[in-house]
User: Fold these one by one.
Assistant:
Number 1:
Amino acid sequence: MSLQKCTVIYDGKALVGLADIPLIDFLESCNITLPHVCYHPALAPLQTCDVCWVEQQGKRVRGCTLRSQEGMVLNSVDEQARAAREEGMDRLLAKHELYCTVCEHNTGDCTLHNTMVDMHIPIQRYAYQRKPYVKDDSNPFYTYDPDQCILCGRCVDACQNVEVNETLSIDFTMDHPRVLWDGGDRIAGSSCVSCGHCVTVCPCNALLEKSMQPDAGPFTSMPASLKRPLIDIVKTLENATGAEIISGISVIDTTLRQQEIKRTKTVCTYCGVGCSFEMWTRDRHLLKVQPVMDAPVNGISTCVKGKFAWDFINSPQRLTTPLIRENDHFRPASWDEALALVARKLLETRDQYGPDSIGFIGSSKGSNEEAYLTQKIARAIIGTNSVDNSSRYCQNPATEGLFRTVGYGGDAGTLADLVQADLVIIVGSNMAENHPVIAARLKAAKKHHGQKWLVVDPRRHEMAERADAYLRIRPGTDLVWASAMARYMFDHGYADDAFLAARVNHVEEYRQSLAPFTLDYAAQVTGLQEDALCESAEMIGHAERVCIIWAMGITQHSHGADASTALSNLLLVTGNYGRPGTGGYPMRGHNNVQGASDFGCLKNFYPGYEPVSDPQVRNKWANAWGVPAEHLSLKVGQDNFMMVEMARSDTIRAMYVIGEETAFSDADAENVHQGFTNLDFLVVQDLFLSRTAQYADVVLPGCPSVEKEGTFVNTERRIQHFSAVMTPLGESRPDWLILTQLAACMGHDWGYRHPGEIMAEAAAIAESFAGVSYARLEGWKSQIWPVSADGSSTPLLYTERFNTADGRATLFPLRWQPPAEEPDALYDLTLDNGRMLEHFQSTNQSGQGGRTTALSPHWYVEVSPELAAARSLNEGDWVRLISRRGTQELPVVVTDRVQGTVLFISIHQGKDGVNALTGEHHDPAVNTPAYKEVAVRLEPVDRPPFPDPLPKHNFRHGKRTPIDKVPVEDKWRRSDYVEPPAKATHPEKC
């Protein structure tokens, strides 16, 4: 946005403000309100409400279409403009029954109510008429009431052009226009993904959260048998007394409600996008999640989980008191008893078996401060570097690839860079379901600005369907594809020779290593057509700015680090680092998996990726922590994968697991469970009695993010602060407080009274966070590491130098190695697996309350049409999947999302889950299990077919209806539409 100023003459007054911004916003900055309803700063000018008329050069103009410019002269007090605004509001009220005091939405942000009050509308001039539709409550999270809908189109524009889900529309040619879902009148079964954006922007109560209904206000929960007559009485009274007396009562009601409602800024606890928003609560009742324009990542966008999946907060399954195992059963215990037991057992284990006999798994859903304390206890008290987090299961191969080539273990830039790219290559990443808010921004860039996409994935998901080029690759062969692209760049003059000469090492050595990677060879290995590879290479070569996005489809293979390296190599060859709109972007899966690694929950790094094996680094941390240097180990510790392995062999004797469902999430579940059973002592700190907690000797009840304060780091390296929305449930405690108290019980009274003190300590030691502070993260502000001492962020890395000793990047030669597990004659199919939009990991959080689970409650296996035909399988038939480790029985969903002999199941459901089938083969560079390399055979099971394993109401059955804009011209062409201030014959229809 330009910061240039301009002067606008408005009603004879000279107003000075920013140039080239929407007039309504310009006036707001000057403390002037131009009435409006359909306008929203996050949306295009819709021109549907007819409430914002002004006079310009003798003509009436809708103010929402104007942008501030020097010398603009406008008049809002013109009689015709005023009359047009009032007529516009009268028409809106003809479509909407005003009963604000008993309306659930009268909490202060109902645009229609507030504008009507500001305009001092004396009476509802047009008689309200009901529409021939019923209220739709078929969605678990929100309702649509056509009787209250004013046809402003905000929801349509948000769905079509911001979220770009392209579900909603309005057909103004209908006799009674209404909002449609895929052209139909029912939400369930449409392509609606329940992102909630339509609800967020709705200016009235037509679209409303179910959590607001019915008890958002003091009079709203009365039964319909009482509410309906009361509304009728009030409407009759309104005609006699005028609307302002009644609206005055509703203003009082709004004020009373707002005194009871607490609005708290927080950051989402689900994926790594890092959405922030306000939570509106009354005591422990979460009324709604309300995103705001100022949120640095998402603005007003959300997804189904961020907007709605918070029922776990008040779940009766929450842990609320410490538990101690006694005679193979858990009994409640006091905090003093539980912490004393944990402290004694850990110290005894250390003293008897040595520091490395204890392993710590920090939480990728906890805060940065909690990750910091986890590794501080491990290192400064126990004396071991055996500390890790769930990045071992997803992020570490990508981080290793970046360390090898460019030096920082994080995204090269921010979401702004992804949006600016000319070409985005999406490899092994189902973004629309795993990182939906970022996917929405990319979909908007593609729809409105012509951004190109190249998608490489074995499974045809939404991003593949929308791509300019889609390569359905053979699983586990991405290194060959990426290396062939790099060779093509050299061979056809697309390599950035100047960039390579100035900023990259080992260019010639790398180029020679590409000799085997011809397009012909790549086609043979990947199963792709050579001409498709050539076309893709030309797309890359001709693009000025390229970003590559990848995720677990790359990293969860036996050579995921090498594949990640190959992608970064390709970016270097083409000069796509260090400029806006370029770089590598491995998407982070959990809300703080980046931060847990950044703040030291890794076996080989202190916070800020400072190596534990460097004596100078050790001395620095020992001095800062006030412990003898020799107490801090120089030996790289064990990671998640090896801790469980060593527990089975009695080398690891005790473990402390915080907020991770390792028993469900780690590969080869039977061996994991055996390892936990073998431990002498296991502590689990969590919200629920998870599968992992069932093996514990002590269970400590932690708090979710909404019950504590701290910071998270998202996939962009962006640090954001979150505040406590409500107090801890029962006797549960914030994890940072538990760890602080545990340290004191172990003889190390650190004395932290607030998580801000913990961040201050980390920032004073780790160079990458030097300028990070809670003061600089106040409100909606954020910082992006590395952060200099003066607080300056680094949104785009590598603009001047790479994070290496000489400042130059490294091209890293690679050789192709096939997957460690491939199909054979006995296990002839490949089982792919991954996440689903509506679920999260083990569903310990997202599965509470049943609403998100209702979208797809059943586990199933996706089978291609060709395989289904060959095996005589139909939708709902039961099959047994048999791997080299175990078996699972599931019903079949036949879909072209998969092809040939590749199957797909989600990672979320099932008693033992997918990890009853996965094995211990792993990436030797980082010990990440090869979850995606599972060979299985399929056997029919003689059971009655399961009806609709993917329910008919699931959004995957929907058929989108894309449009470019709200078709307001169709409204204007209606025979019963006349431009205000002329009176309308059927205002309820237009």
Number 2:
Amino acid sequence: MQVQQRRPVVALLVGWDIEPAMLQACALSAASLHADFYYFFPSGVDEERQRIQGMHLNDGQWEKGEFAYPDVVYDRMRRREVSGFTEVYRKLEHVPFTHTLRGRWGRKSIIYNMLRKDETLRRYLIPFQTLRDADAALAFIHEYQSVILKSDRGASGEGMFVVQVKEGWIEVSDQEYVHRLNDAQMRDMLQMLVPQRYCVQQLIPSVTAQGFPFHIRVHVTKNGQGEWIVGFCSPSLSLHPSIKVTNSEHAFRVSPTWEKFLAQHLNEKLGGATDRHIQRYAIQLAQFMDGELQGGFHEIGLDIGLTEQGSIRLFEAGLGLPSALFHFVEMALPAIAYSLHVAARAEQQQTEL
């Protein structure tokens, strides 16, 4: 009589509601890789019984259930060692996790300064300064004329300001309103932002021929062999030319496919010069950061722009919770495959003890 082989179990740890499409993509990706899947919140872990209350997909519907501890946790909460979140990590300390860095690690300035160490990667960076001194920041603004002020920990364009030096005054856009300031008022504003951990970065025009600002989200991820790949490239255009932060909640955005963007904006195809260049750059960056941090993460979100000459410029890189407008399968499939890789590696290490 044939004995049915036990399927590995991947559990997704979430701390708040996430896109239903992402949950479904994870469940379907796990099924395609012959694994079981459920998701859970920290409150669902029963340490004494080593059981977890969670949700699993059954005939297309999410159902509550009680499950044994999984073989691996795909961590999309990423709050390890952060006050208020430590208990769930302690309860599951013997279960392998995909992400083991301290929660919310990697402010924009830390990552940017890390990349400055590499001679090749440094060429893609944009003049940048951590906002510690209002006078130094004001001098930076006058030097580069057009800059972005952004929170060191911010996401999705939240709290960003576009600052442009005009003749005799300074224009500050908060993505909704435009303010006209003199130098003294600008210095006061910068002083107020110092304790809020802001950065100031030169504004690099990244616009289509029609004048629409855009950025490209490049999702770099480890696959089922533990190797870095580019999961997807997702252009995002602001249809408000005056709103230059293209992921701002105030912008009316469109997101064409990468193939169509290449064709329309650059007259190129997939596998062409720009596509290959971005792929090489993204993987080189991921491999460099992996070496610097000695692992502990498996997903990086890069926001890049293209100058008028077609040169790549890195706006920022993040190790936080990755996001996508439409590319949930492209995000979930390598993440689940990597989760199974982590589980298999942990099981092998146990047998070798």
Number 3:
Amino acid sequence: MAVVVMTLFPMSRAPMSPDIGKATMDMASAPGAVPAHRHPPRDVSAELPQPSVTHLVFPDVMGGYNVQILPVHFKFTPAAINHAPKDNEGHAHIYVNGVKIARVYSNWYHLSGSSLVPGQNEVKVTLNANDHSAWSVNGVPISSTVKVFIPEATP
């Protein structure tokens, strides 16, 4: 698991409401949030190279954040979704603060700015098989977590 700590500052000088730092958001009701559900872990084959993943989160000048997913020994296979699992293939899931936000079928994903709240946020990426089970090693899901700090708005 990779953990990266980042502080993101607004790239615009546009005035912000003084109340923006006081806003709270229930991530389970965030736009695009998926109700919590679990898929069992699926251990990777010991005979094949072990997949791994790390990811980066970049502010997007047009709003929100871009997530770059960097898997090793893993192939995104969007055409095979919901089919039988095939070793070291599948898709990714993105979670923000423990809530699943999306399935991802390639190395890049645009994360809405409303997905992150002022303060510390955790953006997690898991590698998943075509049947949505989480690829794992010895029962531990293959994942990457990045901590993203969003500063409180200043008046």
Number 4:
Amino acid sequence: MKLYADHPVRAFVQIASDVLVLAWVYVWVRAALSLRETVLALDRPGELLEDTGRGFTEHMAGAAEQARRVPVAGEALAAPFTGMSGTGESLASAGDSFRESVASLALTLPLLTVSLPLLLVAATWLPARVRWVRQAGATRRLRGLAPEARSRLLALRALASVAPSRLVGVHEDPAGAWHADDRRAVDALAGLELRRLGLRGF
């Protein structure tokens, strides 16, 4: 598998673009992780609320138990403490719900933050990079063919991929020259294809 062109300028551009993409991805991944830490820091109030509610519930339940031990009026004395115990349970439930919301945001927001830049890379840089690697690999595999056959295949690819203005610069009828097996035109078209990919001749 060939990753970079033979011509120095084209290879430099490819390496630079790869480095920039890697840096872009790294920056956004770090930003997503930093955002996650920031959101998780919001979990502390929910934890305190939950702990306070549970502690309050335990204390009120203990007070109600002590009140029930009072002869005759024990149940009446315990009733207010039992009611306040429910308030503590509500606080604990609210704290738990808050913590669940924070955990959900700590997962969702970083994923959204990093997904959009990665999708941009996948939609622009990656297809072009993969296409070049495949075309360069296919071109290298032509080395096993006879020179004439290799030139004709490269020339045919040039007819499909090189800009018409450059094709006309080789021959006024490049397709006709290819069909007529005009050796000079075919070799020139093959050279255009190699230059398009930034590859040296065989």
